[in-house]
Fold:
Amino acid sequence: MAPVKVFGSAAFTNVARVLVCLEEVGAEYEIVDIDFHIKEHKGSEHLARNPFGQVPAFQDGDLILFQSRAISRYVLRKYKTAGEVNLLREGNPGESALVDVWLDVEALQYDPIMNLVFVQHRVVPALGGTPDESVISESVEKLRKVLDVYEAQLTKHRYLAGDFVSLVDLSHFPETHYFMGMPYAAVLDSYPRVRAWLEDLFSRPAVKKVVSLMAKDFN
Ligand SMILES: N[C@@H](CCC(=O)N[C@@H](CS)C(=O)NCC(=O)O)C(=O)O
Structure:
C-alpha cells in the first residue's frame, strides 16, 4: 500500500501536529514539501487539496483532507487497531468527549495566543519588521490565564483530558516547542504541573522525532 502523503514541511506547527500522530501510530508516510517562496500553497494544484491555500493537506489514496486536527483524528482512527495506541479514547464516550473538550481548548484558547507570540517573535523580524512588544506582553498575560486553568487540571489529572495521554496533549507540542525557545518561556516556571506535563510530553519518542524534523526544516 502506498504511504499516505502529508503536504507541507514539518517546520509548520499544523503540519507537525499531523506528523506526530503518524509517528505515534507507526504509520508509513511521505512528506511533500510545498514551496511557499513560489506561492505553491496558493497554486491550483494545492488549492485542490486545501481550498484555503494552507498546509497541511493530506492524501490517503483517493481521500484528500485538510485541517490538521481533523487529519490527526483520521490518522488515529485509521491506525487504531495497529497497536496499543488509543489517543482518541473512542469506545469510551465520556473520555472521548473530554478529548473533544480539551482539543477545543487547545485550538481556541491556547494555539491562537501561542501563534501571536510566534508571529511577533519569529516571523515579523524574519520579514524585516520590528516585533510589537505590546502584542507579546498582552498575549503572555492571556497565556497566564490559560495556564492557571491547565495547572488546576493537571493537579487533578496526569494529562489534560484525564489520566490518559491523548491527542490533546500531542496537539500542544508544536507551538509549545517554539515557545520554549523564546525568552517568554520563563512564564512556565510558575506552573510546576504544566512543566512536568511538558517534560513528559517532550520525552515521547514520536515528539522527539518530529522535533528533529522541525529543526531540519526551519534552517
Ligand atoms: N486550522 C488550520 C490552520 C492551517 C494554517 O494556518 N497553516 C499555516 C501554516 S502553520 C499556513 O498554511 N499559512 C499560510 C497561509 O495561511 O496562507 C489547520 O489546523 O490545519
Q: What stands out?
A: DSSP finds eight helices and four strands in the chain. The radius of gyration is 17 Å. The chain has two domains: 4-82, 93-212. The helical segments are 13-25, 44-47, 68-78, 93-126, 133-156, 167-180, 192-202, 205-218.
